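Weekly sync notes, structure subgroup
Attendees: PM, AL, DS (notes)

Item 1: joint prediction request from the bench team. They want all three components modeled as one assembly rather than separately. Inputs as received:
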Amino acid sequence: MTKVTRYPPGEIIIWLFIMAELLVFGLFFAAYAITRIDNIELFELYQQNLDTTAALYNTIALLSSSYFVIRSVIAIKADEQKSAYRWMLLAVVMGLVFVIIKTDEFAYHIDNGITLSTNTFYMFYLSLAFFHYLHVILGLVILSVLARNMNKGIYTSKETASVETGASYWHMVDLVWLILFPLVYVM
Amino acid sequence: MKIKKQSTIVETVVFLLLIALTLVTYQVGEMGLSGVNISLGVFAIALFKGALISEHFMQLKYASGLWRWMVLIWLILLGAVIYFAFTV
Amino acid sequence: MKYTSQMVAKPYFIAAIALFVGQILFGVIMGMQYVVGDFLFPEIPFNVARMVHTNLLIVWLLFGFMGAAYYMVPDEAETELHSPLLAKVMFWIFLAAGVVTILGYLLVPYATLAEITMNDLLPTMGREFLEQPTIIKIGIVVVALAFLYNIGMTILKGRKTVINLVLLIGLVGLAVFFLFAFYNPDNIVLDKMFWWFVVHLWVEGVWELILGSLLAYVLIKTTGVDREVIEKWLYVIIAMALITGLIGTGHHFFWIGTPGYWQWWGSIFSAMEPIPFFMMTIFAFNMVNKRRRQHPNKAAVLWALGCSVMAFLGAGVWGFMHTLSFVNYYTHGSQITAAHGHMAFYGAYVMIVLAIISYAMPMLNGRKAANSLKSQVVEMWSFWLMTISMVFITLFLTAAGILQVYLQRMNGDASLPFMVVQDKIEIFYWMREGAGIIFLIGLIIYVASFFVGRDQPEAEMPK
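Output from the run, pasted for the record:
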């Protein structure tokens, strides 16, 4: 009997991207951790300059956003177009909360003259955070397009591939942050 | 015919659990607890949160074979590297 | 061959091969000069031979890309080329410019060449691979624009396939990034940084799109696999190439005076640059495995498969070996670099151009689909001779490079000076030259394959 392959949700191509992204971030996280070995005092010292409370709000924002996305997916699978649209809108709002808080964080560092060249810790923090930030923005663009299409009633319980594709990408963005937050801000 | 809607209970519970674990991590950071074991504990929580995302939010619990395991393997590998980097 | 305008590809392919022969002759000359220092001195000094060798490589590959486009695009777009006349005129202009440049390098001292071509009006000479006089560079831009216009108009009025669009994006990128050759900052750090905007963003960027589209085209034609399957693969491959290659440019910014964070960004992103090449290998073998028919042009399939393997080895594996900053710190500018450079260029770009020529030339010569069995056998011999000798060239240079790096840079107080080390690795240079001669023989056999078995019947598809 042949084995049935149950594929992950959405178009397969997005999962190839997700794996590529996880590879990049994974390598960056690994490089961070390994570099830290010889620079523990430096890392612990400047880590204290980071705004852990802002990061907490950001984590809650992204987790909520991911939750709202999945509520939207469940709604569209039940043909509840209005409900799906509202959940997706909420997801975008929470994503914007993340962007606003993060932009403020970056502005603070820039105002204090912190750059990629300030020291190795800041190089990693700024690189990781900014690279992730760009992915959040791309994800928000995707979610916004999905929301707009939902408002137009384009998706139905039979046509959920696009929604699930975008949703999968967004969950990856959330997943990466869940590693970044404890690793760079706390540990 | 109205389509029976999938229950949202599991996802909601997972979400609340994720928030709770996040608050724990935050508290550890705020309290300034240090030490390798604390750090590794915090990271273990992060990996568990990651698994919750991959299984329940990314819906990989319904996928078969390598597709289901790919993110989990990523988490495990990362865990191994971090463990090594923090204990060496 | 469905569209008569595809015939304009033929002169481009012929010029490409002729210039390829010139390139290898000068390669063999330089290989000799490595071990007999005054070989052909002062008539052809090493630095002049080098310019001729590298410039000929780029120009013949460009002829190959243009010929490929002129052949593929009408077929894919299902319409005649917009202006065959323009293509023919540009051919002669490009060829003349190329020949004049090479003659300029050989016959005139470089400083004089700069003077008579009025380099000081807009100085662009004196940079590696970009040694051409400024007026020639302007000529190249004109030829490129005319080419893009011709191809673009053809695609515009015809069917827009994924292969066509990826090829066009790659070619437009090629032209756009070449413009950086005109930007020549006084600051040496910036000079070097922007130089890589041409070189890296070409061979580890937009040229990979060209490579992907040519490979996809040859595979569609020779395997009969569904276009949709091949197109999906192509999308993923070029996406990975761009994701890894754009920031991967940073692996050239380690030591030139740019900020230190490039050592991190460059290492992490470029470490993943082998991925699209690995995907191309899987792609090629998978498609051939799944093929719906046995195409009579076995030689073309061989070139395509070989390309996917050698590109992965030369660009992917050998590239990875020295891409991490803490390795590159020791190997930078050594024979390791030369080893990678040769196999990468041969595997990725030489072989794909030879693959498309192998596929198209029989039909440009009036055949239905392939050359005679005799002709193909000779061609396949040339494939193996060139490819295996290139592998040996690479292995010998790698050995030379490892020894060089160790003796010159890793031996602490006992580290030896450059020329002393060169003396010690001489044996590898002799062996490299031997392999190079065999490569040249392979190339001669390749040229011969166009002339043997011409009057014999076409190879048939097996029943």
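Discussion: Residues 120-151 of chain A form the longest helix (32 residues).
Action: AL to compare against the crosslinking data before next sync.
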